[in-house]
Amino acid sequence: FLLIILVISAQLVSKVAYGDTTLVKFGSSWKFLDNNTTPANWQTTAFNDAAWSSGMGEFGYGDNDERTVINYGGNPNSKYITTYFRKSFSIINPLDYSLILDLIRDDAAIVYLNGNEVYRNNLPSGTINYNTLAIENVPDEASWLTTIINPAFLISGINVIAVEIHQQSDTSSDISFNAQLSATFPITCTTPSNFTTSLIDTT
């Protein structure tokens, strides 16, 4: 009898695609401090924020769009200049991530990742304290700022993003804060290609 075998072969080819995820979502729960003090090392992963207040973004006062109203000290003619925020998130394989930050700040902000400053907006260079004023008033505090964040300070496991928001004046009528941290990461896909076929006659 006649027996013919069809042989199909192919090469496996690896291709890199990119996925995305949201590490910190708009409107998330944050820990915050609004008592006109600055604890040492408040930006770091080791800091214990158990005594801080908790709330959902957006944070602020004066715009009537806040989910969490923060304290300015009770004196409208001498309001607190700075409010501090912390948020934890967890990741694996930190070297694979690229980070994008979307931020609402009124009037100014410094952003830290695991205690390291990664973004500063509308504040002078050099050392900053809780009485440092923003350089200028933000006319449209509802506008989102988008920036790429250096992922070099990410660690495998629990990470902390921390933000300090500064006013331009101690008589400012409003303050706002909200943020989202997104990430892209590579995904390796293996697919067959270069198919070949052959017939083997076994007679």
Radius of gyration: 25 Å
Run of helices and strands: EEEEEEEEEEEE
State the helical fraction.
under 10%
Q: How is the main sheet built?
A: 6 strands, mixed
Shape: globular
The total strand number stands at: 12
State the end-to-end CA separation: 7 Å
Number of helices: 0
Low-confidence stretches: none
Q: Summarize model confidence as the mean pLDDT.
A: 86
Computed structural class: mainly beta
**Proportion of residues in extended strands:** over 45%
Would you give an account of this structure?
By secondary structure, the protein is mainly beta. Helix content is 0%, strand content 53%. The chain has no helices and 12 strands. Strands 1, 4, 5, 7, 10 and 12 form a 6-stranded mixed sheet that branches. It has a 6-stranded antiparallel sheet with strand order 3-2-6-11-8-9, with no helix packed on it. The mean pLDDT is 86.
